[in-house]
Amino acid sequence: MSYSAKIGPSILSSDLSQLGDECKRMMECGADYLHLDVMDGHFVPNITFGHPMVECLRTAVGPDPFFDMHMMVSRPEQWVKPMAAAGASQYTFHLEATTNPGNLIKDIRESGMKVGLAIKPGTTVEELAPWAGQIDMALVMTVEPGFGGQKFMEDMMPKVSWLRSQFPSLDIEVDGGVGPNSIHKCAEAGANMIVSGSAVVSSDDPRSVIALLKNVVMEAIQKRSLDR
Q1: Of the four listed, 41, 95, 144, 228, which is most buried by Cβ atoms within 10 Å?
Q2: Which residues pair with 9 in a beta bridge?
Q3: Beta bridge partners of 12
Q4: With contact defined as beta carbons under 8 Å apart, do 175 and 6 qualify?
Q5: 171 an active-site residue?
Q6: 26 contact partners, CB below 8 Å, separation of at least 6
Q7: Model pTM greater than 0.90?
Q8: Is residue 183 classed as helix, strand or coil in its secondary structure?
Q9: Contact 34, 66 (CB under 8 A)
Q10: Alpha-carbon gap, residue 153 to 136, rounded angstroms
Q11: DSSP state letter for 228
Q12: Which pLDDT tens digit goes with each residue over 169-218?
């Protein structure tokens, strides 16, 4: 079992006019990585930001913070090289957005980034399974991608459980409506990378929320290793 508990605040929930400072604040509060939502207005209805913003953020925060790029875009192939050049650490694309995941995985690796593969609530986990051995992380969306502030979809947890049982050492991320109220379900199902937006970023005490989320996941990982 080679995975660990990691908490990644979703910076889209922060004050976008102060993004560099917000990223630094999250890292200082104990975040393990930063989750950056890229939306193109096609794959999802919203538009956020692209590689120029990522490049500015990388300059602002320095080389250490891990940037997990959640690419909610129609043509993920198009942005691999620009994102790598901008300083992205991991390129998480949607299975629904490409007809050739194998090639895209290869391109991402060759550009020096880690590979994440995401599925929307309507996509079965069995469709992701053939690629699980080639990726660093699977992302199970727990809301429909495109908007923040949605309610956590507990019925996505069987996908997480199935992935954890089939691929015991895979990093499994959940994203959407995750906070102190839903973290136990995520941790018990086997998620170890936790994206949390407003629950962390808008909190009066982000450090405590990050610590709480992390402790719940660490305890679940420990319990799983004892149960085996």
Answers
A1: 95
A2: 196
A3: none
A4: no
A5: no
A6: 9, 11, 14, 34, 200, 201, 206
A7: yes
A8: helix
A9: yes
A10: 24
A11: -
A12: 999 999 999 999 999 999 999 999 999 999 999 999 999 999 999 999 99
